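User: For my dataset I need records formatted as: sequence, then structure tokens, nothing else. Please produce one.
Assistant:
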Amino acid sequence: MLSDIEIAQQAKAEPIVNIAKKLGIDEDCLEFYGRYKAKLSEELIREKSQGADGKLILVTAINPTPAGEGKTTTSVGLGDALSCMGKKTVIALREPSLGPVFGVKGGAAGGGYAQVIPMEDINLHFTGDMHAITAANNLLCAMLDNHIQQGNSLGIDVKKILIKRCLDMNDRELRNIVAGLGGRVNGVPREDGFIITVASEVMAILCLASDITDLKERLGRILVAYTFDGTPVYACDLKANGAMAALLKDAIKPNLVQTLEGTPAIMHGGPFANIAHGCNSVRATKLGLKLADYCVTEAGFGSDLGAEKFFDIKCRKAGLRPSAVVLVATVRALKYNGGVPKTELGNENLEALEKGIVNLGVHIENMHKYGVPVVVAINRFGADTDAELSFIENYCKQLGADFALSEVFAKGGKGGIELAEKVVAAAEKPSDFRPLYDIELSVKEKIACVAKNIYGADGVIYTTAAEKAIAEIEKLNTGDLPVCIAKTQYSLSDDPSLLGKPQGFNITVRDVRLSNGAGFVVVYTGDIMTMPGLPKVPAAEKIDVDSEGRITGLF
């Protein structure tokens, strides 16, 4: 059996010019990064800003196992299947982070015969967007510390600095550090730390900005610190947003690539869904809707995280109206939710499947709360038995939920025809999309709404730090912002050990931060970390490159 990278390396990619032509894009609108990837110009985005939109299809999932369940694979395969049916289709995806690539979860280019290529480029440096975001964030941090070093005319309290440096790599050692040691010439000593780039507010801003002007204004609104007298300090007060925007002038342009079967794919932005808002850029999605009849996009992790934020943050902010939701479910994830260890998920276990399948029921019910038609995609893995697959199908029938078996990993687009047909039919049904909560509610009321209606919690508990943070945010008159809840992806609760359909639990909010430029309030629950660590055996140990520059071990 070939690995993902071996399949990708054997594929014959079309020149990106030909892929662009499928969407009616002229060569003059492409900014080339080699033969097989390009950025899409501002002229194209302005030109396509008018006209009718295609159908927006969101791909989300149930709560996953630590290994991931093939949501991106399903997105890619569905796009290829729609293309096989003669539908003009584009896929809008997030860019991978180097953290998972070298850690445990893997990349974000799909898998098997449902991949986006060039796979190695996409999973490594791609077009440099992640590096540009990292540089812009760290420039702001450098200018903040320099301001303090050079006399601190704003009166910034070093104990009330909110912004952290970032790095696109899992590195737990940098979560909490002391900076500025070595004497006065090396800065003012203070506690600091790093977050992973995909959790930074700069990443969120890039993904939500409508254009370069909006980007620059949002960057200027980043709340970086407070002064000794409690006055908020923003990035614009440090005169940092202009230079930050200059670093991001190319990164704000969406990237065009292709699937193994030549379906156009726009990849742009990469926030995680467990610690950020989990969606690709608004610009990429909106452009995809103008370029094709069907735009297939995804939101990270389970629907309790990525889909909730897609609907309540991205769609609300950008005025998007999804036509259908694809909910990915797998035998092994449901068995995991039934208590089966990761190492034993390949063994048939109908008892565990019956116990864990209630997780699927919750996610179906939750997605219907947004008023959008739902199709369950049963993503088949090689170890799945007919009895296990039939069990899930019968469960969907009992709930009256549309479903289809998806075999895109093994068969590419042809393995997703049944799913594509169900999605097309669902997208033609009336969609009464609506966000979950009223934006005018208080911060606590919004948190409670998500906790009770999506997670199934009995209530919400706030630490003293969280109470204080909410009070400070409300003083800034920014209460009319959606909430972005950081929570474990493995459970509907904030405790990763509570699998299936947890009951009788509360959500504990330990801290709350204002992402003023992005336009939402970040809520930290449980033990969620904004800088992940590497596993005991990192995937990086298996990755290598030979004398010809050929990469091996990348999945």
